[in-house]
Amino acid sequence: MATNTTVVNSDNTVSNTTVVQFNAASQLPIKLAGSHNFTTWKAQVSMLMHGHNLFGHLDGTLAAPPTTLKENNQSTPNPAYQIWFRQDQLVQNAILASVEPTLASTVAIAPSAHKAWTSLHTAFANKSQTRIISLQDQLASITKDSRPVTDYLRDIRSIADELATAGAAITNVQLIVRILQGLGSEYKAISAAIRSRETTISYEELLLVYSDSDWAGDPTDRTSTTGYVTYLGSTPISWCSKKQRSVSRSSTEAEYRAVAAALAETNWLTNLLRELRFPLKAIPRILCDNVGTTYICENPVFHSKMKHIAIDFHFVRDQVQRKEVEVKHLHSADQVADVLTKPLPRASFSRMFDKLGVADIHTNLRGRKRDRLGQIC
User: Which SUPFAM superfamilies match (predicted)?
Assistant: First the structure.
């Protein structure tokens, strides 16, 4: 709230000056309680004062005018000082209303808003810096260990948010490096792929997932095998070859279960990259070589034929309908995940290995050794 005050200057000119009043309950909802929230409280008060061009009352740059004016050897009250004093008192009152009762006396006994601001800054700024150092130490030492990756990411996010609130925000690059450092050796592939990127990651590049199954391939219990590979650009970063827990009554059902497993991995990678603050441009794409499975994922008409599948696998259909993922058909000859589910002819096996980027390092080393020997000879 602002009020206009008429001031008669020493040269008898008249000017209007605005005196700003504050509603601390709505404009300053965060109350200063100690060093743990001093930085947040300070930012709140600073933004409000800057918004009204009154921050000079806090940092001392808007000094008090003389209290009196002398004219013809006579002293008269200075109207400019009276206006300044009124505004300074209102600023100090706003600070007083935004601190806890235990700190109110520090503000109340100060002769001006600047002195009150300085006293609070002296009392809590150093302790706030100690808090920042403590948070940075926590961030530097945190690791995933054996806990779920979601808990690990949540803890890092919490520390990063606290640092930002305390005025020591870390950059996106620093946050990404910190997350990757604490993931552990099992995430080495995705860590290396992200570190080597020079451009932003899009879903079209990252979440290109090949999904396949070997229906009833186990001669002992006739369970099927799930296999999938997830690519980051041309680099495979996540893969799986695992027996399904229950027997599938059709190849379509086995493929559907494989797609569900691949989608679960895709969702996890999606959340990880969001935490890493990489731009996401398109929805994930899962490639499957079973036409019936792609129809079931996209067309609700076919769902009645699959009621015997456990309900938890139908989250695939729900995400397809919400346009969060798409399942597309792929010719079996191009199905990279095929190598993870069943024995293949030598030619097909070698071709899939080439697509996966797998190389025999021992052969390469032997070849290099022969080259070096040839150069010596």
Answer: DNA/RNA polymerases (SSF56672)
